[in-house]
Design goal:
Elements (H helix, E strand, L loop, with lengths): L2 H7 L1 H26 L9 H12 L1 H31 L9 H4 L2 H4 L1 H25 L4 E4 L2 E4 L1 H8 L3 H28 L8 H29 L1
Antiparallel strand pairs: 1-2
Helix pairs in contact: 1-2, 2-4, 2-9, 2-10, 7-9, 9-10
Bound molecules: protoporphyrin IX containing FE.
Keywords: Membrane, Transmembrane, Transmembrane helix
GO cellular component, one term: membrane
Protein name: Succinate dehydrogenase
Length: about 230
């Protein structure tokens, strides 16, 4: 094993990979949310359909998508390896262990929260990403050019109450996952500082709540107001 493989398969190395991929996925969420805000324009979905077409056809975005998939794969794989190592290191829990006294609920349930997000992602991609990339959507003509009507798919999906419920519940899980994950990433990267850590923690909480609220508002808006 060379030094590179050795470093990145060690526990510290895997934590660093989880931190870097986690922060990268956070940046994706911001870009994705800003793109989705096009849905609120009162233009019958024109801006959103043109934006989605750009995302589907731009070669740079396609390369970014591959990096995004790798980000998810490494993040999930390292989470599984680290959980298994933790369990193997302490197969029997301490008799007088009261984890709720010195750790948050989110930090003890990152695996459960991550699993809810993964199930959400599979449902989400199947409904939006797969037809957007591989066909199955109605067409719409905008200024003499034919586009896939992804906007219509969004509107129709968010008329279904249980679909909206899946999104809202998943966004609560995502918020808790990010609240712990954000500050934990900075710790794993060794960026612990008496002066800056409290700010990073507060910023992480605000970031997680705002981003997840932004995503949760979309299905609620289409269900109740459109
Ligand atoms: C209500 C909120 C959301 C809406 C309306 C929405 C909408 C969409 C749409 C329409 C696509 C297909 C775009 C295209 O391929 O051109 C897409 C793709 C995707 N979404 Fe979402 N999304 C939402 C929330 C989320 C969340 C919370 C996550 C992650 C946890 C996420 C992750 C992804 C990923 C990974 C892709 C594929 C990559 C991409 O096309 O950029 N989405 N989303």
């Amino acid at each position: 094993m060379n030094w590179f493989t050795k470093t990145f398969s060690s526990t510290v190395g895997r934590k660093i990979i989880m931190a870097v991929t986690g922060l990268f996925l956070c940046s994706f969420l911001v870009v994705h949310l800003i793109g989705n805000l096009q849905l609120f324009r009162n233009d019958g979905g024109e801006a959103f359909n043109v934006y989605s077409h750009f995302m589907a056809s731009n070669p740079i975005i396609r390369v970014m998508e591959i990096i995004l998939v790798l980000g998810f794969v490494f993040h999930i794989y390292d989470a599984l390896v680290l959980t298994r190592r933790n369990k193997a290191a302490r197969p029997v829990s301490y008799a007088n262990n009261h984890p709720e006294e010195n750790s948050s609920w989110a930090s003890r349930n990152m695996g459960l929260l991550g699993t809810i997000i993964l199930v959400f992602l599979i449902i989400h991609l199947w409904n939006f990403f797969v037809p957007a990339r591989f066909g199955g959507l109605d067409g719409v003509v905008i200024e003499d050019v034919e586009y896939d009507n992804l906007y219509l798919r969004v509107v129709e999906s968010f008329q279904i109450w249980w679909y909206v419920a899946i999104y809202v519940i998943s966004m609560v899980a995502l918020a808790y996952h990010l609240i712990h994950g954000f500050q934990s990433a900075f710790q794993s990267l060794g960026l612990d500082h008496k002066k800056y850590t409290p700010f990073i923690q507060k910023f992480g909480v605000a970031f997680s709540i705002l981003v997840c609220l932004g995503f949760a508002v979309i299905p609620l808006y289409f269900f109740f107001l459109v």
